[in-house]
Amino acid sequence: MPVLAKAEVDERLSSWLTRTAAIYLVSPDALVAHIGLRTKRIRDLDLDPPADDIARLVVATGVSAARLSQMTFRDAPTSLRGLIDIESRAVCPTCVGEARPRVAPRLREWTYPFTFWCAKHGGRLKSADIDGVRVLCDEASARRGARYWRALAMGADETAPTTAAVMNLLLAPCRSPSPAAPWELAGASPCMRAEQQKEPIRAYPRLALSCVAPEYDSAVAIYDRRLPQEFYGLTTARAVERRAVAIGLGRTIAFPVEAALCILQRCDDFGRRRIEEELAAWPTHLRAAIDRARRCVRSGVAPTPWRRTAADRAPRLTPRSGSDGQLDDFARCLVAEHEASLRHLPVEERLDRLQALAQAELESLRPRVDPGRRGPAGARDRADV
Ligand SMILES: [Zn+2]
Asked: pTM of the entire structure?
């Protein structure tokens, strides 16, 4: 082929061939048939392309076999391969705008469940299914969680507790399944409501994620939640649910004891057994800290476990009344509150956790009702993300 599309950095082989086909005004399937590849579906070339298909592509395009293989997932670590979703439709609008010909390039990076932003432009990736994403606005926790998730996929899960253990905790039920409460059906269509009233009444799982990232409950309606029971199933979960998990991860790894305590306080007997099973995989010193904190809560010494203490002592700020002096007091208050628990950490991680803490506290001080919200999966979300 005399003319080829310019391959983007990290572009998938199927994406590059699709854009090359667009230059010749033919469909990707027609191009594949013309070159004589054995693989019938162009996307299947990305995962494990047969050697003779690569050889034919070398002849047809003049690009080296090594470069073509680089565009596939052939060399991806085993831990990552299980997470690749080759059907992913996520794209970066800015990348699409820059592409020539103007067919959306698809990068290898965008097929991972923990990729929510374009590495080149920093903007959020878009896909056909982004309802509710706007409600999950804790960007700092989402980015931190996505970073841990990536490390887990790359075989470098080195957090304490491990990212895998935190994932399992967040996806575990903290209460026994129960039918939807009336307010959980507030945004449901009449058809869905009628469905809910049929016998037997459907019971929904109640996951620990909702305790750590309560905004998940606003972002995704109860009848629309499809989180799997173990994290490898997250590969094909909806973007909004994966993002909620990333936020939960970011918060729980930054504040493991507070998060565990928060979940345990919302458990029923069924959930407590399950959550304690998951916590058994956590390091001994954290489990000891959780036990101490539970005893304190029971004896009334620390009645406000989930980062409330600092916020309660801090001046009550509103967006208009906060002065610099008050903010300084608030920052000092946060540092004093958490100094002991942060002292053993490297400086970078200490700052990271303090930043997350400050953001979470400021979030909690914001006015309770956001007039822009219209319940789960509103049409406004789609326009803005
Ligand atoms: Zn981009």
From this structure: 0.74
